[in-house]
Every structure is written in structure tokens, then in C-alpha cells.
Amino acid sequence: MEELWKRLLSDSQLEPLRQLSAGNESLLTCRSSDGTIEMRKYRPMLIVSSTSWTADEDFSILLSALKLYDVKAASRNACSGDCVTLPPLAVLITGKGPLREHYEQEISQMELQQVRIATAWLSAEDYPLLLGSADLGVSMHTSSSGLDLPMKVVDMLGCGTPVCAFRFSW
Asked: What is the pTM of this model?
């Protein structure tokens, strides 16, 4: 996992997520003084969403939810005393498609403190590794029939990643 994130964070597309790591840390791991790689104690939670950036996937819903989380996390993390803090979020949205530029523009105008969002296209080798390292997968796909479970959800579940998705009929 450490090698994956060192490689991914060297990509300029992921600059917003690079801000959440420093020194001997990757996004999710750190190297201890004896050289052992372990999960960071106060690491961000990684949320991944895969998309084809079409009208079937309304990312304004996710972006609105991330704004709400940011406000709540900032207020919780600013309090002193016995407050329950919320971790920062690292959100990586992967894919290509016609609405990508539209949403990237919207993301670039968001002023967030506790949430970092990046968009990228990953190699076929890195994609399942990314999914396997995520804390949560999010599918914004909606279906007129309610029957077609997107392959991206199957990919996430196959990598052991819990998925938050719109309701589907089984």
C-alpha cells in the first residue's frame, strides 16, 4: 500500500491529497523508526468514487455532502475539551467522461478545510489496489430500471471495500 500511495502522490492530478501527507508518511501509512510500515494513527479516511462522468451520476449530491461534512468536522475539531473529532477526508474520484471538467471546476471553487478532493484516471494495475485501500466506496450511479448494478460497485465489493450507493432493486 505504501508503494502505491508514494507512486500515486507523485502524480500532479493528486496534489490535493498530497497535502495530507508529509515526511515519512504516505497518505495512509508511515514508516516507524525501525523501518516498519504501519497505518498512520491520525490518517485521513479515504473515500473513492469511480465514474464515467455522465448525467447518470449526479456528483453535486456528493459535493454537497462533502461541504456539510467539512463544516461539521471543522467545528468539532476546533473545540477544546472532551470533543469527538472527525478525521479529514481524502476523496479520490476516478474516471473519464463528458462532465469531468464541469465537476472539476466546481471542486476547484470549493473552500474546504477538512476535505481534500482529487480527480484522476488510474492504470488498470493501480485501480484495484486503490479500491482495496479505501475506507469507503461511493457510487453516484442512478438507474431508470433500478436493476443494473454498476460494475464499479462490483469492483469495490470484490476488493472488500464497503459501498454507499443509490437504492437498487434485487
From this structure: 0.88
